[in-house]
């Protein structure tokens, strides 16, 4: 592990006992105490580069105040433009920010764009109420008022997920501050249930990264090895990559759980990132609060089992970095300048790559995903429905195997980063996933795949596959 990785781990572990301290505190102590801890961590790890986050916050707040009815698009343009400036600092001869500054800036971008969207929704709802002449009462997920500058700063620097996620909306943050009877919200048992696999994943990460170091792929000697060895090597590299993030995101979720952050009654049917989807009245007494069943789906960032064993590429995206996936779906995918699913996915993956950074490997990897989505959708809708139940089960297993190999392949671009290293590795295994995807897409088109009824039927059938795999 690098020094930066040790620092991230320490920050994540420290967040857990801090969370227990804040859980039963009042709204004021939660707001300003959590912000003070987050700002302290930012100053400690980022130093003077903390100024970048402050400039981004002030710029977004100014846009919200100036144009509340259109601040979402303006905030998106501002924060993404600042990311470009932020990453070009070394080219401009300015001090290069630390990796921690980059992590803070990434999460802050998501939070500020979401905040602007929530303010815009509030403003539009208020205008609609004024036009209709009557008030409907509080709506699900709507803010009570526009946050002040200090409230925006407290949300932005809240220590929860400040460097690693999970992403959360301002509405989720407010619900935590105003949580009724926080002592009735369970923390310890949900935390232990969530944390138990993390040590195992950590050991698997250390073992796999030691036995199959990534740096070997950058050496000339690697390409003298036989093709089966080169082809196999991407599997343990992606395995180590997954284990590393599983540990980080589970620890980050545990920090939230310790504080009771993101806890909602199960009846609210909360979604990762978005929060409750059903109105659930707050309990009126401690006894009623204690009788409720709670979950932490709002801050759930990874579903390890489904990430590994879901069948389709599309499903794999859904269960990985779940709160960020919600953000991308809500604020990028839905506003894409096209109605085509594949083209919308390509637009979303392009902006996701840009959000991650400017390294060519990000773009090579992320922009391979739409090709895989198109290929699996066309071929599945053309062939799967023709098979017997046993044949469909065999299809799902083969589909799962190829999905994992596709993610192994794309991961190499994500970790190698440079165009030269990525293309060199892909070329050494003959761009096999690109070739297979193009062949599958061509076969699916030739067989007439992609009809709405067939696509819907195939999608419904395959959506049951994770449960089949679990039973097996």
From TrEMBL:
Domain of life of the native organism: Eukaryota
Biological pathway: Phospholipid metabolism; Lipid metabolism; phospholipid metabolism
Record Pfam families: MBOAT (PF03062)
Predominant cellular place of this UniProt entry's protein: endoplasmic reticulum
Bilayer topology: Multi-pass membrane protein
Localization per record: Endoplasmic reticulum membrane
Family named by the database record: Belongs to the membrane-bound acyltransferase family.
Protein name according to UniProt: Leukocyte receptor cluster member 4
Annotated organism of origin: Phyllostomus discolor (pale spear-nosed bat)
Origin organism lineage: Eukaryota, Metazoa, Chordata, Craniata, Vertebrata
Gene (UniProt): MBOAT7
